Amino acid sequence: MTSIFLLPPPHMKVVVRVRPMIPSEAKKGSTCCVKVVRASSCKPHQVQVDDHLFDVDLVYDERLNQRDLFHKEFANLIPTVFDGTNVTVFASGASGSGKTHTMEGTAKNPGVVPRTMQKVFQFGQQQVATYRVEMSFVEIHNDKVMDFLAATTTKLHQDELSLSTSASGRVVVDGLITRRIASFADFEALYERACKFRRKGAATYHAKSSRSHSLLHVRVESRGFDGLVRVGHLHLIDLAGHDDICPTVQESASMMLDMQPLDESPVARLLADSVAHSSIAVMMCTISPASVVVKDTLEALQCAAKQRHVVVASPTAAPKEGIKHLLTMAVDFEKRGKARPALALYRQATLLLDTPNEKLQARMQALAAAMSTPESEVDGAKRPLHATVQRILEEDILHTFNHGSMAALMALQSIGEKKAAKIIKGRENRVHFTSIRDLMNVGMGEKQVVRFQQLNVAARLSSL
Fold first, then answer.
1. Rounded to the nearest 10 degrees, how much is the dihedral formed by the CA atoms of 145, 197, 217, 313?
2. Confidence (pLDDT) at 267
3. Residue 96 annotated in ligand binding
4. Which pLDDT score is estimated for 212?
5. Which H helix or E strand runs over 124?
6. How far apart are CA 257 and CA 200, in angstroms?
7. Exposed/middle/buried for 434, CB within 10 Å: 0-12, 13-18, 19+?
8. Which one of 74, 134, 222, 429 is least enclosed by Cβ atoms within 10 Å?
9. Is 95 annotated as a binding residue?
10. So what's the pLDDT on residue 333?
11. CA-CA-CA-CA torsion for 69, 70, 73, 79, nearest 10 degrees?
């Protein structure tokens, strides 16, 4: 069983979109070199190019349109931003692979960015008491940072902006303009003007390929009907296209993976900073199926597969609140006579403290000494399980639902071969379990779900 204290941290989600083959590729005698391998119970989605296999989170072929892509992958991110979560979405791929089409789209067939912003305003009007949206928008070309919002109606402002690091460690664009936008029409006017100024040029297989990076930052502050104010940030990034895969993508990946500033270019610094401070990060990798550009496709997928190992920030409470939760859980376990997990939680709490706490150190020493006696491993008086502990235990079970093998699912109480097969089939149909009650979607009755929850939470607790 996976330890509840060692669950794998959330990673960057990598989505691959295969565009249709274009006439110029067909005229060159190109054939399709890309094959989509759907996920199964024992392996993730894969993209096969010739003899090479790449693990990714999801793959969409040329049949998926702009609207369906948005609703499948991005529409559900909007409520999380209003809930105070930071989200980063960036598109990567070789020139002409459909990257900018996916992000910008056209007036008649809008892409991820305009559809996302339209959804932001729809959600704000319907789901919260009040809200405020602000945006900034920069272009990076030849390592020069320019402000799209400083542009006039006829030309892009040419003054180069510099980057600095704030006291909190964030990368900041000095002198960047931030504007409040009250409606989607406000956003659309600014965005369309900026897109006209974005530098484009001919690439090997594309007459108008983006030659610059665009980074849109949206800040959403909202007051819910519960009276609480929340602030979330949304980063929508379209990386430049090149005849070969953009090297800054690979350098950014290396920097994020190795935690070393291997590249001081502005786009690498800003991309790494936005991902490092986001709880949700999605990479949209666009590729061509044509054999004539197989080299570009392989390099794009190699970069995408590497990004899956990038760990994103956990959407947990603030550090002080996190320490409080750890200590509450530790005390709860200690009172139940569970010395080992209590000591582990106390140790985790000490790692988050700015200065050593003598009382906590003494408590840990006493607990460690008590563990040498058999009585320390005997359950204490029966008490209701603390809500935080219950939630952590249930998250461990949900992790098995969403990622466990057939054997791991059947190891759960009340889950036999048929129910395990239904859960796996649901996952293959992109069902994601967010609550134990979601078992009702695979044939369990309400009483069965309650019994399942009781049995499996108890089993997890007894295994600590």
1. -70
2. 83
3. yes
4. 82
5. helix 112-127
6. 30
7. exposed
8. 429
9. yes
10. 76
11. -170
Within 10 angstroms of residue 82's Cβ, the number of other Cβ atoms is 20
3-state helix, strand, coil in the chain (%, to 5): 45, 20, 35
Distance (Å, whole) CA 332 – CA 144: 55
Q: Residue 253 — φ and ψ, nearest 5°?
A: -60, -45
Residue 410 CA neighbour count, 13 Å, CB half? 8
Cα–Cα distances (Å) from 455 to 1, 397, 415, 450, in that order, read 15, 11, 11, 9
189 membership: H or E segment, kind and range:
helix 184-197
94 is known to lie in a ligand binding site: yes
The residue with tokens 């049995």 is 455
Q: Compute the distance between CA of residue 341 and CA of residue 334 in angstroms, rounded to an integer.
A: 8
- Give pLDDT, residue 291: 92
Instruction: Show Cβ contacts of residue 336 under 8 Å, excluding neighbours closer than 6 positions.
Output: 379, 380, 383
Structure tokens at 118: 């339209």
Return all residues near 403 (Cβ < 8 A) that are at least 6 apart.
none
For residue 385, what pLDDT is reported?
47
Residues in the chain: 464
Mean pLDDT in runs of 10 for the chain (464 residues)?
Answer: 39 90 88 82 77 90 93 90 90 89 92 96 92 94 88 65 81 91 95 78 44 90 84 91 43 38 69 80 93 92 85 55 69 78 74 71 81 44 46 72 83 87 79 74 80 75 53
Q: Which two tokens stand for residue 2?
A: 């996976």
Q: Residue 30, Cβ neighbours under 10 Å: how many?
A: 19
Radius of gyration of the chain (CA): 25
Whole-number Cα distances in Å, 12 to 73, 276, 277, 360: 13, 10, 12, 36
Type of residue found at 292: V
- CB distance 308 to 10 below 8 Å: no
Beta carbons of 332 and 389 less than 8 angstroms apart: yes
Cα–Cα distance between 287 and 34 in angstroms, integer? Answer: 9
Q: Can you give the pTM of this predicted structure?
A: 0.64
Secondary structure class of 277 (helix, strand, coil): coil
| DSSP run (H or E) holding 428 | helix 417-428
CA distance 398 to 456: 11
Is the separation of the CB atoms in 91 and 237 below 8 Å?
A: yes
- Say whether 99 counts as a known binding-site residue: yes
**Distance between CA atoms of 62 and 69, rounded to whole angstroms?**
11
Amino acid at 15: V
